[in-house]
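Throughout our pipeline, every protein is held as a single compact record rather than as scattered files. The remainder of this section carries one protein's record, kept here as part of the documentation.

===
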Amino acid sequence: MKTTAMLLLALAASTAQAQESDKFMPSDLARLADLTEPDLSNDGLSLVYTVATANLQEDMAQSDLWRVDYDGRNRKQLTTTPDSSEWRPQWSADGRWLAFLSDRKTAKAAKTGDADGKQEEQNTQVWLMSAQGTRLRRLTAFADGVEDFVWSPDGAKLALIVMDPEFPAGTPKPKNPPPIVTERYQFKEDGADYLGARRKHLYLFDIASGKVEQLTSGAHDELLPAWSPDGKLIAYVTKRGPDPDRHLNFDLYAIEPRAGAKERQLTTFPGSDLDPYWETRPAWSPDSGRIAYLRSGEDKWIYYAPWQLAVVDVATGKETIPADIDRCFYKPRWAPDGRSIYALVEQSLVTHLSRIDLADGKVADITHGDRFDYDLDVSADGRIVVLGGDDHQPYEVSAVDADGLRALGGHNAWLAEKRLADVEKIRFRNKEGTELEGLLMKPVGYEKGKRYPTLLRLHGGPVYEYSHEFMPDWQAYAAQGYAIVAVNPRGSSGRGFDFAKAIYADWGNKDVQDVLAGVDHVVRMGVADPDRLGIGGWSYGSILTNAVIARDNRFKAAVSGAGASNMYAMFGHDQYIREYELELGTPWNDREQYDRASYPFLHADRIKTPTLFQCAEKDFNVPCLGAEQMYQALRSLNVPTQLVIYPGENHGLTVPSYLRDRLERNLAWYGQFLKP
């Protein structure tokens, strides 16, 4: 009997372990492959792209280059560098070569020890290899690396974006860094540290000789170079004026690829023409006569106005908006005949690859259904690839055939072995009658009629939206028995300018009402347990979390990551000085605005929800000060709280162990208060 009982116990334990192993767990974060930057060869026969994975041995994110034929054959990893990364791959026009960026060490640096203190720093340069991944060599050797590059059409030259050197050529670096001195209006940027007089400029690099020529200079930055197909001009994005830091008026410029050439301004709209934040490059028409790009609203509206597809005639400067549909466009690419443009178009809960007819402005979806497309490319012969995913599939690269999509990758095929939670749309109205939308993920093993502990997750931005894309943290929550509610409140993108600007200079008011209406809806559905509610978010999702728990005590646990609630203290402390003054004004002139935006901190005594605060040590986007002040307020009030700081990280965490730690801590915090 004893033996039988022990066998039954062992069998039960084994069954339970098997049931857990087929769910998505925090440890699975490190198994995910993140695909980006698809680039088709001119003949459309081959595709190269970047795959980022977790290097657990080094505890770092690391990316390599992969190649696959358009027909799906011969998928091959081209680079394998455990201590460095490769990205931004680009084909030469003849398809024989691939250029890319890499932060790998040179042979000289690798052989130099630490003893003499002369080891070269690992910085980013342009590298070259054959299309088969052989004959690898470094092309550039700039002291402070290369920010960006693009091939010339004849394959003989590169246009580079390079930061002004910190020290003159041939000058040894001092033992300790020199004092940081700045006179910049915006003097911080997340990932770039403090900003001084050094700027990013356009250079010309001859591949055969290694000759370097600087094309632009001055107290401004040049970004996102794009070479015209006829080779006569290089287009780029820049902000000019007496103080470029004080405005958002990015414009397109062009210059001939020779030293001493004069720049020419192409766009003149008094607002953002291709803000680099939109992750989109200027796209030349096949005949080199026009450039497709993105345009937003006037500076006042910052990121609230949807960025529209625009086209400028290079010869005349005439600017047109082909399809004025009050939605955000991304990453335009020309059709080979120049009569239409492919782009990603955001709608509520989805982003689809679409075709825009330039003659009549009609927008036709090419991809369909509940998915989120993130990137695309179009070859000279008209072949198309799209990078996108859905609720159960991370970004995957696919060929666009006449009868639909054909996957070319399969890097996350292991997810098919997991029991993933399903996602459904929810639609409801707030108290004012405004129709709202969101997503509901029910827990794995959901039983109808049973109520579950429920997490309200809040997105960043604020002008962003939850979409039908793979959310690994949600899957981990659902695997542990939570339902997840994700509402797109007023202030979100995907529903036009008026919907987004509803919270302009009024954070934590209308959007609080809307997300609470979403919780009420899921309670009425019989899914959410009203006595076991949690809330959380990162960035603006954290700012909104703080606003919600300062106004409503129904939540039993909160996780607030990389947020802030004392906007007086953030003025001049984070990277958004320009945006603060445009939207809120200044603390000395607009006290009412700053008081309203700082409501959760100024009324912290109303917060009763146990809250876990998190931040990244090197974050200049939403610095740790925001989390630290809210943590200190709750500690002073004896509300259960904890502060977690991730060392050396910027706004978006990248260290694999920290990503896992954050998710495990979130689960533990929610479990402590929602599953006692």
About this structure: Residues 1-18, 109-118 have pLDDT under 50 and may be disordered. The longest helix spans residues 2-21. The radius of gyration is 26 Å.
